[in-house]
Design a protein that fits this description.
The complex is a heterodimer of chains A (about 425) and B (about 100). Chain A is α+β, with helices and mostly antiparallel strands and about 425 residues long. Chain A is built from 17 helices and 10 strands. In chain A, the strands form 3 sheets. A 5-stranded mixed β-sheet of chain A has the order 1-2-8-5-3, sandwiched between helices. The radius of gyration of chain A is 21 Å and the shape is globular. Chain A starts with 7 loop residues before the first helix and ends with a strand. With about 100 residues, chain B is α+β, with helices and mostly antiparallel strands. Chain B has 3 helices and 5 strands, in the order E-E-H-E-H-H-E-E. The model of chain B has no long low-confidence stretch (mean pLDDT about 95). Classes of the chains: A alpha+beta (about 425), B alpha+beta (about 100). The interface between A and B is medium-sized, with 27 and 20 residues. Chain A: Belongs to the cytochrome P450 family. Chain A: It holds the Pfam family p450.
């Protein structure tokens, strides 16, 4: 379906571009804009999915989790092209293939979600802030005198791994393995791995599951103050425990979901500080202004959303964005595009801390599947922003912006490495 | 038993009542009040259970704390002076007769 007059560039993008093309995937905004304007539910032939690019259509999907199934959307996306082989490897060598219990549909999803929610309230997260501040400041201080660093590999990745280790009660010396596991799990919904890469990732996931299962056994026998203990001992309103398969999948999700995405957000934080010095200056002058810091985090998430596309599958024929979708249509919800929609966010490429609707971005999704760790993510980003601008200044990219590379995945837009230069402050 | 009148997003008044340790959001969800989504399940993290408290009741519902205020501030396109997140209001007997208008989102 096509609306309005098509500029030749937009026509060419809609006819030939794909989210699986590394060049488009790294710099997708023109593609998003062409879709939003001319073909809001756009068939991406190479990906084999409909790209849903408009805010209102994504909102419609989020309000109807039965018609638009996360269970089918996510599990059809997982290891696509190698699904059977992937599941067999996990069954044979990884202790089992455990579908993601949280990537499910109501009413089953409601029970799982309720069990997870208690751990993540904004008030509980607030209580974690002093401990997380200490982790952040230690890490910044360890690189502050060097004058240069890779903001992703030296800061964002180790920071989020460290925090998730504390939350789950895992050993910090696992950090390299956890970083590899995160890549391996997220690559399964990224749609850009070849068979050889899938085999490597599947082996990492086997290693991850064996590690987690052993930890779960320890915590079953000897509970501690951590989320693994909470989950293996959790009981729902009827007094039912999680099944073993559910518990493995949820602990795996906690370890991975909050890790790579938050690391991506922290990489984006450095990118903004390095490329928009006026924002860095404003933050330096405003570290004690909690309202401004909160708004900064929201606008950062809107303008550079870590998760740009997650999937759904229709369970019946349905009309969306002027198109009739059959049952079984596989959709990718393009949050990054919706965040750029001009009639929702005026002058969307402007970093504007005064937006009255600053919290309406779709970077955490919405509806019953809205990111469960959002309060923790916001707090980590806020603490990092505050402590970074306090401790280092004159942050600059050490490579030209066009040389920035991204992880090969349609699900997130994650900077792979971000070499920066800076000076120590104070 | 605490009785509450919601004016839902369609402007329709709905008189409901609840018992026990409930939040205003939980009461709304239990009665299917349109416009109360409560995506985050009561974690004070999403601002999808926004209500405007009738000015006559503001003293009894009280003011938002810092964490709730931060959420209200992010939806200031629809939040006003008497806005609260329904998940952060506990239904105590002193709120019997409360009246709130569900925010348009």
């Amino acid at each position: 379906m096509t609306q309005g007059t098509l500029a030749p560039e937009a026509r060419s993008l809609l006819d030939t571009a794909s989210m699986t093309d590394p060049i488009i995937s790294a710099r997708p905004r023109a593609y998003y804009a062409a879709m939003r304007r001319h073909d809001p539910v756009h068939w991406d032939e190479k990906l084999g999915m409909y790209l849903v690019s408009r805010y209102e259509d994504i909102a419609t999907i989020q309000q109807d989790p039965i018609t638009y199934s996360v269970n089918k959307g996510y599990h059809s996306q997982q290891a696509k092209g190698f699904q059977q082989e992937f599941q067999q490897i996990l069954e044979r060598e990884g202790g089992g293939y455990f579908p993601d219990a949280i990537m499910s549909d109501p009413p089953y999803h409601t029970r799982i979600r309720k069990l997870m929610e208690k751990a993540f309230s904004a008030h509980r997260v607030k209580a974690l802030e002093p401990r997380i501040t200490k982790v952040v400041t230690d890490l910044i201080d360890s690189v502050a005198d060097r004058g240069e660093a890779d903001a992703v590999q030296d800061f964002a990745v180790p920071l989020t791994v460290r925090i998730i280790c504390e939350q789950l009660g895992l050993d910090w010396n696992m950090k390299d393995r956890i970083a590899r596991w995160s890549i391996a799990v997220t690559a399964q919904i990224g749609r850009m791995q070849d068979r050889e890469q899938m085999l490597g990732h599947a082996r990492e996931i086997c290693d991850l599951q064996h590690y987690l299962i052993a930890k779960m056994r320890e915590r079953e026998a000897d509970p501690r103050e951590d989320m693994i203990s909470d989950l293996v001992h959790a009981r729902d309103a009827e007094g039912q425990a999680l099944s073993f398969a559910e518990a493995v999948s949820l602990i795996r999700a906690l370890l991975i979901a909050g890790n790579e995405t938050t690391a991506t957000a922290l990489g984006n934080l450095f990118y903004i500080l390095a490329t928009r010095p006026e924002i860095a200056t404003l933050l330096q002058a405003s570290v004690d202004d909690d309202r401004l810091m909160n708004r900064f985090v929201e606008e950062l998430l809107r303008i550079e959303p870590p998760v740009r596309g997650l999937s759904r599958m229709t369970t019946r024929e349905v009309e969306l964005g002027g198109r009739t979708l059959p049952a079984g249509a596989h959709l990718l919800l393009m949050y990054a595009s919706a965040n750029d929609q001009e009639d929702v966010f005026a002058d969307p490429r402007r970093f504007d801390l005064d937006r009255p609707n600053i919290g309406r971005h779709l970077s955490f999704g919405g509806g019953v599947h809205r990111c469960i760790g959002l309060a923790l993510a916001r707090m980590e980003i806020k603490v990092a922003a505050r402590e970074i601008v306090r401790r280092i200044g004159d942050i600059q990219l050490a490579i030209p912006p066009e040389e920035i590379r991204y992880l090969p995945t349609v699900a997130t837009q994650s900077i792979e490495r971000l070499p920066i230069r800076f000076t120590r402050r104070g | 038993m605490v009785r509450v009148t919601f004016v839902d997003v369609h402007g329709v008044e709905q008189a409901v009542a609840g018992e026990g340790d409930l939040s205003l959001m939980e009461l709304a969800k239990a009665n299917g009040i349109d416009g109360i989504a409560a995506d985050c399940g009561g974690a004070c993290s999403c601002a999808t259970c926004l209500v405007h408290v009738d000015p006559a009741w503001v003293d009894r519902t009280g003011a938002p704390d810092d964490i709730e205020y931060a959420m209200l501030d992010m939806v200031s396109d629809v939040a006003g002076d008497t806005s609260r997140l329904a998940c952060q209001i506990r239904l105590t007997p002193t709120l019997d007769g409360l009246r709130v208008v569900v925010a348009q989102q």
